[in-house]
User: Which sequence fits this backbone?
């Protein structure tokens, strides 16, 4: 597989191994894995950029180099890197402040197996009893014509180059947003086109979630409910949408929560009914509004969900219970319609401000204070 960033990988390999760079690449499953995982580097800020698996490899190879095993010593005798040190290190890296332990514990290995099912090695080795970790040295050594070549430094440079590319793209995205914030009302059409371009099917899932939140927050902010403990005590409260955490976080299937209605929202790019019903189960079958990154009609999406559910469960009463928990389906056309209503209400600037704020938080672009680390989670290394 070749893509825009592949040339950068070969450039780095050429600097280290000269004319052998193609043979080194072809002989290394780890380099081919990184090539696959860096496809988004040349696609700008709207392309999905994942860092968890990259950083799981990075911190272990970095530790390997720090101990000097690329030059001398028997790595098989090494006591292994402590989980707490690896966990803290990956959170120090760009875009890494909110990373969890899943990639170190299993996800990176699981994904590697999908790409290289016939490879006898897994990248990350772990002793559960001691919470010590190792990079599989077999994947850091490439043998050509009876000679071994160590690619540890190359792995670090490739990941550094990928992160730098994604950082440049994201900073360009933030810069564009901030410039648009300062345009006058005569440039509203430009701003609208920019925002609408961020809620298309090909956009990074995190960007889609952030923009969806910005639109829906302003859309519901124009609505109120009246409630009270008695007919003589009635209050008017505006609907307020809150973002509950990071995108792609393990937060029980709740991306947004609305007060005072207590309404749940889940943003997704999949149409796999098993994922929808898993989210519903996580919140004990509390009704959820699904914001789906799809241009299919809400009716079509609901019909597909019901069809898949019947195939999976085969019992109408179970299917009906799950489908009753789908409070509403908001697709891309509906988001665009609601965005138009928000613009007509004079809240375009508020949407853009929210996109900038949430993007900086999501991508750790600006942090006011160090992130707190759960020491129990650190010590356990549990998934």
Assistant:
């Amino acid at each position: 597989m070749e893509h825009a960033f592949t040339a950068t990988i070969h450039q780095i390999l050429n600097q280290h191994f000269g004319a052998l760079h193609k043979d080194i690449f072809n002989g290394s499953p780890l380099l081919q894995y990184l090539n696959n995982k860096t496809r988004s580097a040349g696609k700008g800020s709207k392309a999905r950029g994942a860092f968890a698996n990259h950083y799981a490899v990075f911190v272990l190879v970095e530790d390997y180099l720090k101990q000097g095993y690329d030059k001398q010593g028997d790595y098989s005798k090494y006591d292994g890197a402590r989980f707490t040190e690896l966990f803290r290190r990956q959170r120090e890296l760009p875009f890494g402040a909110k990373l969890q332990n899943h990639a170190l514990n299993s996800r990176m290995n699981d994904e590697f197996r999908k790409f290289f099912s016939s490879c006898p090695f897994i990248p990350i080795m772990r002793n559960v009893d001691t919470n010590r970790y190792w990079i599989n040295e077999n994947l850091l050594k490439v043998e050509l014509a009876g000679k071994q070549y160590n690619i540890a430094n190359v792995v670090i440079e490739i990941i550094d180059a990928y992160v730098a590319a994604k950082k440049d793209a994201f900073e360009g995205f933030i810069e564009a947003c901030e410039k648009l914030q300062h345009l006058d009302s005569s440039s509203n059409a430009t701003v609208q086109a920019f925002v609408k371009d961020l809620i298309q099917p090909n956009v990074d899932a995190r960007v889609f979630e952030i923009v969806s939140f910005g639109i829906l927050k302003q859309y519901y902010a124009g609505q109120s409910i009246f409630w009270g403990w008695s007919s003589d005590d009635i209050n008017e409260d505006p609907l307020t949408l809150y973002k509950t955490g990071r995108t792609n976080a393990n937060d029980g299937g709740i991306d947004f929560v609305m007060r005072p209605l207590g309404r749940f929202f889940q943003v997704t790019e999949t149409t796999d009914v098993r994922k929808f019903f898993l989210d519903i189960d996580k919140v004990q079958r509390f009704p959820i509004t699904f914001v789906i990154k799809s241009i299919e009609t809400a009716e079509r999406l609901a019909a597909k969900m019901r069809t898949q559910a019947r195939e999976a469960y085969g019992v109408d009463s179970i299917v009906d219970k799950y489908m009753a928990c789908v409070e509403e389906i908001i697709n891309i056309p509906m988001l665009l319609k609601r965005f138009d209503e928000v613009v007509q209400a004079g809240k375009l600037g508020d949407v853009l401000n929210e996109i900038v704020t949430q993007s900086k938080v999501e991508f750790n672009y600006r942090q006011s204070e160090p992130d707190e680390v759960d020491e129990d989670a650190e010590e356990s290394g549990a998934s």
Observations:
- The first strand starts at residue 81 and ends at 82.
- The longest helix spans residues 152-181.
